[in-house]
């Protein structure tokens, strides 16, 4: 029963008692009512776990070990850099931020285990983390049951954010729906594509990307002439690229991860397909210089574009600002590009805490974050969240990359929230 209903019932019982009991009994009933009211008031004033007069405890998790640490170490340290800066300036409404970090290894089982620990043992107030969508998807039920707000880090998969769940927010790096839709918008509007070939992985991430790409193509009146679904660990892409070549597309769109994305570009160059633009989704080119080295053939990149979300790659001043700040806290580490991806969720977290005020609870934090329209220097568009929208960023832009130099194209492409 809710606290409001308990109070109402107590008031009703006390009124009945006053009207029907002898006077000597009314005193006892009234005393009982006062006691109940005092107990109830104490319960109302009790803080959620993880928050005191001087401190807010935040849990962070991601792959701090194993093969996918690029999605964990740097993003988490990027987020911690922001929290340390906030603490340096006095914290939030007089409270400093305490961070507890756990390693989920991008494993579903590990993610459930470490999130349980953060909630039950460390008793954090909020959670900010998750580098891999499958791992985050595994903790959805736990987060909803425990009612602990979670702001995703690098992970931004559709299964976690659609439909919106009250306690989970993310998509700072754009969801599959946003990246898939804006990829098709770009190749149609900028490259004039009418016949598009898609290549994506055979996992849930790839399926979501293909689905939104096909829907967007249909809306724009263009044709998907080939769709190749490949395993993430596939090392020979001869057959898929030959089938794509046989379909005679005028643009090839790749939603592959870094290693297969480089193999796609290799085969594309080897098969003499470079007269056809090749466009990669953002996850395929996390570090352009490394990508070009892995392709190993600059001729294969003469008609190559890739999608990006954050402005760090194309704004040297912005990049220097954040790298210099990071180096203040981690002087012995040179971060990878995903450090920047750890900043937006941490910045959004503190903005919502500020907005919720000194008497913040988990529920009032949710109410505050669902009204944010936040300008961050890392994005071309604002971060927008609402009751019906928990995916923070729907905008991407594109970079032409020849293996040596990058040219940002000026247009920003925005998913319409449909398709």
Tell me the count of domains. 3
CATH class term of the largest domain: Alpha Beta
Portion of residues in helices? Answer: 40-55%
Q: Describe the main β-sheet briefly.
A: 8 strands, mixed
Give the number of helices: 16
Would you tell me which CATH topology of the largest domain applies? Rossmann fold
Shape: globular
Which whole number gives the mean pLDDT?
90
CATH superfamily of the largest domain: Response regulator
The gyration radius over C-alpha positions equals 26 Å
Structural class of the secondary structure composition? alpha/beta
- Share of β-strand residues: 15-25%
Cα distance spanning the termini: 42 Å
Question: Secondary-structure map with pairings?
Answer:
Blueprint: H1 3-20, H2 23-45, E1 55-62, H3 73-88, E2 96-103, H4 108-120, E3 126-128, H5 133-137, H6 140-146, E4 150-151, H7 158-161, E5 168-169, H8 176-189, E6 195-201, H9 204-220, E7 223-230, H10 238-246, E8 251-254, H11 258-270, E9 278-280, H12 288-295, E10 304-308, H13 316-329, H14 338-341, H15 343-356, H16 362-369, E11 373-374, E12 383-384, E13 395-401, E14 406-408, E15 413-414
Parallel strand pairs: 1-2, 1-3, 3-4, 4-5, 6-7, 6-8, 8-9, 9-10
Antiparallel strand pairs: 10-13, 11-12, 13-14, 13-15
Helix pairs in contact: 1-2, 3-15, 8-9, 11-12, 15-16
């Amino acid at each position: 029963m809710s606290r409001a209903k308990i109070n109402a019932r107590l008031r009703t019982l006390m009124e009945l008692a006053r009207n029907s009991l002898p006077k000597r009994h009314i005193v006892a009933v009234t005393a009982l009512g006062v006691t109940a009211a005092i107990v109830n008031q104490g319960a109302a004033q009790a803080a959620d776990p993880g928050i005191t007069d001087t401190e807010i405890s935040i849990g962070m998790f991601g792959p701090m070990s194993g093969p996918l640490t690029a999605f964990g170490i740097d993003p988490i340290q990027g987020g911690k850099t922001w929290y340390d800066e906030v603490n340096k300036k006095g914290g939030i409404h007089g409270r400093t931020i305490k961070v507890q970090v756990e390693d989920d290894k991008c494993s579903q089982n590990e993610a459930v285990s470490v999130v349980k620990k953060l909630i039950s043992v460390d008793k954090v107030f909020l959670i900010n983390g998750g580098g891999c969508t499958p791992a985050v998807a595994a903790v959805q039920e736990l987060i909803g049951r425990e009612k602990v707000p979670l702001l995703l880090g690098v992970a931004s998969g559709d299964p976690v954010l659609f439909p919106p769940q009250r306690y989970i927010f993310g998509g700072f790096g754009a969801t599959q729906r946003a990246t898939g839709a804006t990829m098709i918008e770009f190749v149609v509007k900028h490259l004039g594509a009418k016949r598009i070939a898609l290549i994506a992985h055979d996992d849930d991430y790839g399926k979501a990307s293909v689905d939104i790409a096909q829907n967007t193509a249909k809306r724009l009146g263009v044709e998907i002439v080939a769709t190749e679904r490949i395993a993430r660990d596939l090392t020979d892409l001869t057959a898929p690229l030959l089938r794509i070549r046989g379909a005679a597309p005028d643009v090839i769109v790749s939603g592959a991860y870094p290693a297969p994305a480089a193999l796609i570009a290799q085969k594309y160059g080897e098969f003499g397909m470079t007269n056809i633009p090749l466009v990669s989704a953002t996850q395929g080119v996390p570090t352009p210089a490394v990508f070009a080295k892995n392709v190993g053939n600059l001729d294969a990149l003469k008609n190559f574009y890739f999608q990006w979300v954050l402005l760090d790659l194309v704004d040297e001043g912005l990049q220097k600002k954040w790298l210099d700040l990071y180096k203040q806290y981690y002087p012995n580490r040179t971060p990878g590009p995903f450090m920047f991806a750890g900043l937006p969720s941490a910045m959004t977290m503190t903005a919502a805490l500020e907005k919720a005020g000194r008497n913040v609870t988990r529920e009032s934090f949710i109410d505050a974050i669902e009204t944010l329209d936040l300008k961050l220097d890392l994005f071309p568009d604002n971060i927008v969240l609402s009751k019906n929208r928990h995916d923070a960023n729907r905008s991407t832009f594109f970079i032409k990359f020849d293996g040596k130099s990058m040219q940002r194209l000026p247009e920003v492409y925005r998913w319409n929230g449909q398709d």
